[in-house]
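Hi P.,

Sorry for the delay on this. The queue was packed all week, but I finally got your sequence through. Input first:
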Amino acid sequence: MNIKKIPLVNRELSWLSFNERVLQEAEDTSNPLLERLRFLGIFSNNRDEFFRVRVATLKRMAKLGKRVREAIGGDPDVILEQIHKRVLSSTQKFDRIYRAIVRELEQQGIYIVDEKHLTREQSVFVRNYFSEQVLPHLFPVMVDHAPKFPYLKDKSIYLAIKLQRVLKEKKSRYALMEVPTDEISRFLVLPAVGTKRYVMLLDDVIRHCLHDIFPAHEYGQVNAYTIKLTRDAELEIETDFSKSFVEKISGSLKKRKKGVPVRFVYDEAMPLDMLAFLRRKLQVIKHDTLVPGSRYHNFKDFISFPDLEHKELAWPTIKPKSHPRFKRGESMFAAILQQDVMLHYPYQSFHHIIDLLREASIDPRVEAIDITLYRVANNSNIVKALINASKNGKRVTVVMELQARFDEENNIYWANKLQEEGATVIFGVPNLKVHSKLFLIRRRENGKAVQYAHIGSGNLNEKTAVIYTDKTLLTADKRITSEVEKIFAFYRDNLKPGSYKHLLVSPFSMRKRLIQLIETEIDFAKDKKPASIVLKMNNLVDPEMILKLYAASQAGVKIRLLIRGICALVPGIPKFSENIEVYSLVGRFLEHSRVFIFHNGGEQKYFISSADWMTRNLDYRSEVAVPIYDEAAQKELQKIIDMQFLDNCKLRLLGGTKENTYRRNTATAMNAQEAVLALIGKKTR
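Then the structure:
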């Protein structure tokens, strides 16, 4: 079958479908009210990144003409037009959901008020707050007479202000002012009135006090409209060989901040003359760049909307469970040596990983720690443990990937800190992004070297580990640890790729081994034996892998896919992909783990991995999938996957005419994430 002719869903449109699932969660009244508001924030943040990365890429491709059509599966201009229509439609739905949530909040005694609906007492409070806390951070620019139009930062919001003169014969003026959300909370909680709580957005605080900046005797009417500019986030790395890689990345970050505009969002209530003025000054011309919006932008701030002591309107706090194998005061090395340990975040505590590295940092028998870091927390305890290990004389080698999008500055900071404390830092591999989630601890036991390995599906990041579902294997199995050692040898010397019998390693063997596993299922199906594949991942895009899954379906292999984000595969086509079912699970936690299960004639093969099935992961990144050999871990993994496919609260059907349809029925409600939490809690007791 020709890859060029197989049915594929455009990846950008599929991603928009994913974000629409997030918007569904904001609309779902089974979610607590404040969590629905936060889902609006997540939706907004996702869409901003989509424009910075994917739309920006399409715009660059559109300039290259016909050469790129095959590469992306269509004309970039046509895809951009489709994106524009979907974005406008989802924006209208977003605004409708927000208005509905605001009304429901009012029924709970929570009011989001603007400058037009303040009592006298509230007005005095707001003016005092503005004078003391806000005004020192405001620096308006009179843009109509400015010699150069001010630079608009990405991720920031601005108030475009129209100043109408008291004397009508004088022309109106325009000003521009950044809303200082980096210095001040976006939300001001006003004094309660009885049981009623009031919240005001910083934008409206400024609007209420505009005459404190622009005197009323000169400007009779002052109106402010929120605008936002989204810029291309692609890094253009210099080829200057006299500079270090860190210097090149640092220079590219400065250029990113001044990237080409890819979207201009504005308050649709803005006067046309003002909109025309701003478009002209910003050189925003194409219609697909302009997005008319509501009064407020940067809804990502609503992720941090205040609780207002209404805990019943939010999800109850979940305390991750301790793994039953790890006992307080006992060596974690002894537990791992006895039996493999699999951790499931956020249901189980990520602090086990920090504890293990802390124990390694002070254990006199530990000689060395090798680790890969892709995205770390801003105040990373992982890095602190590594620094402590280095101070205690351990050989610490950190493979720090500097090209982790939007985390480059943080990674450069921690890389410098580690080097200052004596750790060896390797800045990735040339032309290969290191995305694997590994560490290897070498320990001297009874005169022999014993190695302990961590292989995970998610980043070594304690912040994301409480909101992302990920899986980690901790093992002393020599079959695994010896091959993890080979991967670190490759990171040190790129001329030593190594050979791997147990691990699936990109870009060397993962694609080939996965295809072999699929072909094994095809052979079983052709022999009329049970054959099945279960895959859970964030994105399924790679055409060759999709082609192989289509071939498996045609051979009779039963395939179930759980894809959180982009899915280019089209299920349910008669005599083609009719044996493939595709679902997506979007709920309280971000489903981030990658799990591959092959029936293998009844001798199931289980893998967890850092890799999605995308061309970049299989061919242009260093990724690892690890087999799960421990039977108890296999059973637990299978149980969790089964629960997810049984979900009838948050599971959606992908593909066909009913895209993003909830899989709900009259059976007892089954929320998989809640069920897994209960399962893990039961095992812990």
